[in-house]
Specification:
Helices cover 2% and strands 67% of the residues. It is built from 2 helices and 21 strands.
Length: 371
C-alpha cells in the first residue's frame, strides 16, 4: 500500500444563448493539480515534488432545430494539458422523432484521454506478490501521448406510455495509442529480480456493445431508471508471459503474444433514482458489473480465461437550491466501502488494475450569476 498527496482546484465559466432554433453553450475551464509523494522509499517521482499539472479548456456546443422533427447537435472541445499537445474533440449528433412513440438518433465523436502527471512521472518499487520476482516496479513515461477514441453510436427510443420509455443503443469505438504497462523481468542492483513495468502508448483496440434502458416517471417529482450493458473488446498485439521471459535473456517488452489478442468483456446492471421536491433533490445510483478477460490464439481458441471480481458500488447525492443562482450539494461515493474497486476504463483494456478506494464525501457549491 502506498500513498501520495494530491490537491485539485477547478474553475469553469460558461454562458448560454437560446433562440427559437438554437441553444448555444460556450465555456472555458481551468484545472490545477498538485501532487506530492509521502516519506516512503517505494514511491517517488522523476521530477521534484510537489509539482503541478495544469489543464485549460474551451468548448462550444450548439443544438439547433433542423426541422419540426429533427434536431442536430454540433460541438467541439479544445484541451491543453501542461507538457502535451493541444487536443481537439469534435462531436456530431442527429435525433429524429418518428410519430409520437418512436425516435432514432446517431452520433459520431472523437475523444481523448490525456496521461496524468502521475502516469508520466511516477517511480515505484514494491515487494512482489508474484512467485516470478522479488519486486515489482512501475515507472511513468514523460513521452506519453493522449489516447484517441473514435466513436459511432446508433440508437432507438420507444415510448410505451406517457410515463414509461425504453432506449436501445448500439456503439462501436476505435481506440488508438492506448496507455498501458508492459512488463520486463530484470535483475536489480544488489541482487534479486523485479518485474519492471513501463507505461507506454503501445496498444490499439476496438470496442462494440449494446445498452438497454427503461425509464419510469410516475410523477413530476421522481424518476426511476434500470439499464443493462454488454461490451465486447478486441486488443491485438504481441504478448509473451512473464514465465516465458524467465528463459529468455532478451525479454519481450510487449504485453500480448504474436498472433494472439485479448478479449475483455464486460456486463453491467445499473439502477438510478432521482427525487426532487421544491428546492431539495436526492439521487441514488447502484451499479453492479462483471468483467472477464480472455486470451485468444491465432486459431481462435481460448488460451487463458480470467474472471475478475464482481463490483457493487453505491453512490448517493443530495442538494438544495438556495436561490435560482446558488446551489449546494453533498456527494457520497462507494458507500459499501469495498477495499478494492476496479479502475479499468469503460473499454475494459486495463481490466485488472485495482486500487483501494474508501468511501468518500465532498461538498460542492455551484453559483451561476445573471450576466
Amino acid at each position: 500500500m502506498y500513498q501520495t498527496g494530491a490537491k485539485t482546484y477547478d474553475l469553469e465559466l460558461d454562458t448560454e444563448w437560446s433562440s427559437e432554433q438554437h441553444d448555444l453553450l460556450v465555456g472555458i475551464g481551468y484545472r490545477y493539480n498538485e501532487l506530492s509523494s509521502d516519506d516512503s522509499l517505494a514511491v517517488d517521482y522523476s521530477v521534484e515534488t510537489p509539482f503541478s499539472d495544469r489543464i485549460a479548456q474551451f468548448f462550444i456546443h450548439d443544438e439547433f432545430a433542423f426541422s419540426s422533427t429533427t434536431t442536430i447537435t454540433l460541438g467541439v472541445k479544445y484541451e491543453k494539458h501542461e507538457g502535451l499537445e493541444g487536443l481537439w474533440q469534435p462531436t456530431v449528433r442527429a435525433l429524429s422523432q418518428i410519430g409520437r412513440r418512436h425516435a432514432v438518433w446517431g452520433a459520431w465523436s472523437i475523444a481523448n484521454t490525456a496521461p496524468s502527471a502521475s502516469n508520466r512521472y511516477v517511480e515505484m518499487l514494491v515487494p512482489s506478490e508474484s512467485p516470478l520476482a522479488d519486486y515489482q516496479g512501475y515507472f511513468g513515461n514523460a513521452s506519453l501521448k493522449a489516447e484517441t477514441n473514435k466513436s459511432l453510436e446508433l440508437g432507438w427510443r420507444y415510448r410505451w406510455s406517457d410515463s414509461v420509455l425504453s432506449d436501445m443503443t448500439l456503439y462501436r469505438q476505435e481506440h488508438e495509442d492506448l496507455m498501458a504497462y508492459y512488463p520486463r523481468l530484470i535483475t536489480i542492483e544488489g541482487g534479486g529480480t523485479a518485474i519492471f513495468q513501463l507505461f507506454d502508448n503501445f496498444q490499439t483496440g476496438v470496442v462494440q456493445g449494446v445498452e438497454w434502458s427503461f425509464q419510469w416517471q410516475p410523477d413530476s417529482q421522481q424518476q426511476f431508471e434500470l439499464s443493462y450493458q454488454f461490451m465486447d473488446s478486441d486488443v491485438p498485439g504481441d504478448h509473451r508471459s512473464l514465465a516465458e521471459q524467465l528463459t529468455d535473456p532478451m525479454p519481450n517488452t510487449s504485453s500480448i503474444a504474436p498472433g494472439q489478442h485479448g478479449k475483455p468483456r464486460r456486463q453491467a446492471i445499473q439502477f438510478k433514482h432521482q427525487f426532487n421536491k421544491g428546492a431539495l433533490w436526492f439521487n441514488t445510483l447502484i451499479n453492479w458489473e462483471d468483467r472477464q478477460y480472455h486470451w485468444i490464439s491465432s486459431e481462435g481458441g481460448v488460451l487463458e480465461r480470467e474472471s475478475l471480481k464482481n463490483q457493487l458500488i453505491a453512490n448517493l447525492s443530495a442538494g438544495y437550491d438556495i436561490n435560482p443562482n446558488l446551489q449546494v450539494s453533498l456527494f457520497a461515493s462507494n458507500l459499501f466501502g469495498r477495499d478494492e474497486v476496479g479502475i479499468a476504463s469503460s473499454t475494459g483494456f486495463r481490466v485488472n488494475d485495482y486500487v483501494e478506494v474508501p468511501t468518500s464525501y465532498h461538498l460542492k457549491f455551484d453559483w451561476r450569476p445573471d450576466l
